[in-house]
Amino acid sequence: MAGNDKKLVEQITSRDVDFAQWYTDVVKKAELCDYTSVKGCMVLRPAGYAIWENIMHGLDKRFKETGVENCAMPLFIPESLLNKEKEHVEGFAPEVAWVTEGGSEKLEEKLCVRPTSETLFCDYYSKIVKSWRDLPQVLNQWCSVVRWEKTTRPFLRSREFWWQEGHTLHETSKEAQDRTIQMLNIYADFCKEELAIPVIKGEKTAKERFAGAIATYTIEALMHDGKALQSGTSHNFGDGFAKAYDIKFLDKESKLSNPFQTSWGMSTRIIGAIIMVHGDDSGLKLPPRIAPVQVMIVPIQMEKEEVVSKAREILERLKKHGIRCKIDLTDKRPGYKFSEQEMRGIPLRIEIGARDIENNVAVLARRDNGEKISASLDNIEEEVSKTLDNIQSNMLDVASKFLDSHMSVARSTDEILSHLRENPGFVKAMWCGDRECEDKLKDLDGITSRCMPFEQEHLDDKCAICGKPAKHMVIWGKAY
Amino acid sequence: MAGNDKKLVEQITSRDVDFAQWYTDVVKKAELCDYTSVKGCMVLRPAGYAIWENIMHGLDKRFKETGVENCAMPLFIPESLLNKEKEHVEGFAPEVAWVTEGGSEKLEEKLCVRPTSETLFCDYYSKIVKSWRDLPQVLNQWCSVVRWEKTTRPFLRSREFWWQEGHTLHETSKEAQDRTIQMLNIYADFCKEELAIPVIKGEKTAKERFAGAIATYTIEALMHDGKALQSGTSHNFGDGFAKAYDIKFLDKESKLSNPFQTSWGMSTRIIGAIIMVHGDDSGLKLPPRIAPVQVMIVPIQMEKEEVVSKAREILERLKKHGIRCKIDLTDKRPGYKFSEQEMRGIPLRIEIGARDIENNVAVLARRDNGEKISASLDNIEEEVSKTLDNIQSNMLDVASKFLDSHMSVARSTDEILSHLRENPGFVKAMWCGDRECEDKLKDLDGITSRCMPFEQEHLDDKCAICGKPAKHMVIWGKAY
Q1: What is the pLDDT of residue B7?
Q2: Which domains does chain A have, with CATH numbers?
């Protein structure tokens, strides 16, 4: 049957030889997603969707604890509705898909497939919000959106992707700003606690702002190849959209006012980050908290009945303990099973054979560092729980150290360029606030401002690029 | 402040005066969903979406217990892909929306927005299924689909609706048939246990079959106006789609075979059933198991601090007990709060005032039958749990009695017609199996065959419509 034990592993490109090919190989071999006959559109396969389900579940819980309610807006936006906010439509119109026929007839007005739903939420709010008693509105939806990208990559850029988009409306500018930051913090905490991905929080420069926002905040993660991935954004719109869409409310002084608005989103893109932060040459490496299967039990010598029955007993004990656990009873050889499970990123493997049973132990094999531990069967639940916790925190440690060791400081354009060539990652440098300096780095080597981090440092008085007085410290990098 | 206590109630039409208007009023006043600027498309408002979330959660759990895995397919279907299965395309092509432009350019091939995803699952399966080891495939997705309806009604018929669609692939015809029935049973049990809606299970006649299926099974529920609502369907496709889409696998004898396929779906339509089965002239009535808020606590005399603090204490105790509970601390008058909560269908209200506290009790007011019970504060958690269970089972009892008392037996066309005029509901009658008899009832009075129920009875030897030898007992009715 299954041939060489190492078959799965040998088929993937090494991470250091060709990172892009390694990424594609892992996505494919771990069966996370795949291209379809629909150009530029992906199918999220069960193994990939199960990760997304855990992400949805974890984020949704955090959202609801802050008063967020879910809803569902239409999939389509009439052209006239999209056109109401000038900056927004300029940002999105060039990359939308248009429905022009319905039920065998040409439509009177064409409809775009939502690329994002600010316009739909505005239209809704303009109808239902009348008084300060109707505020705040703190809504979110889980859905897919469509942007007509020319080049696509699994999870990172595709014509359709899945996400959540929150849209809130507030009485005061301060409340809107607080909500914008609150949601950014939720994204950052979620990445750290659940995905074991450390991120840098900050504000985008004007150039990188979302179309129509007065401020865009971002969390930026660093991939293993030294490139950045924008992993979640939160926008403060001020009252611009409210004015464009005529959303008004009677305030406490019975005066008609425009409310203040935010939006924030995280998408299936973050699965790309999980792959590129944690994965290695054996494949995917999932943090236990987000792993659909946390533990796979592999009975060694499947022909022995007592081995299989002991393995099943462990399965039941772990399940009762709340551990997401499966048993591999296929007729593949153990070595093949091991490499298959490693490819799929399962955090912990339990091997159990006849001699282990004699010794009242099982072997716990960690995916994160390859360590093997002999654990007593008496309290295997506790051992497994503890090991999963260790894996989770070790993965965060490793990723944090990687981030720290790939963060440079530069005081000139040359230093920015050389740091990013020699030690690809993030570079901190002072900036004058002018777009020309951003354009220059972009033209020179495709470098973009990732954010003005909340934790500002005073590295210098001058802009590293042009030498004018510095206004902000910026984190620079190359990005997906 | 809020004016007349009865304001909310007075604004809705009586159920017996104009059922259609009553339905629209409840949907609107209970803030379940609303029309949008996108013609024929709804927004599911938070109160409506929260019901859908509970439905999704409950069904998804049942699905997964039978081995179903979730995934996400693309939103679009290329025209050539849709066209591969002849009956299927004939059924759906007239009612789809077409994307013809993307990213400012005309597309080479137009894409329809999925009306259902058999074609996409087939395309996917044709790529990934190679051997009997890859079977069964038991996938499902939660998404919205689009059908370009001309006339629309909230939840019942709209251009976009939300649903789940399961698509499975099996080695044998028997396995496919078993899965088809298994999923129908899950729908029926779910309706009964969670939604307190009794349904009739049966097979659709050939005329009413899903486009491309060899057998379609349905659950049919009876609304308060005597009309039927098809509430969930499960289809057996045989190997027709597999042949059209070239899905093949090497079976255990190393022979190349076509697998057998099913699909099954339940949609936001079922929320319409909840409204129309249980609602009354005071508004919505939610079964406790599906209600987003099961209990609303209303402190009487909100100016008294000890009343509010006792109410909050009860809130915390109920929450700890796993009861979905809220407290109404708005400045509206109690009577207004009561009618608002009744409109929204909250199963149980707890009233608590100063005198109640003196007596160590609270008043439990049931939404289902209006009963008020005085409950000791000592064990209010148990009292509330028990009362919610009683409400749930009473709602199922009431709905089951309604169904039984609106089920007639007919032995002639005249009897079918007169029963449906005098006691609108379901009519059992024998049928010869010919489409002409179905067409005749449809032409005479818009009557359709709802299903050939699994529980067949021999009422007569002859078809009630044409007098030819009878083959099946059919349940007839008028339907949404």
Answers
A1: 54
A2: 8-278 (3.30.930.10), 295-387 (3.40.50.800), 407-477 (3.30.110.30)
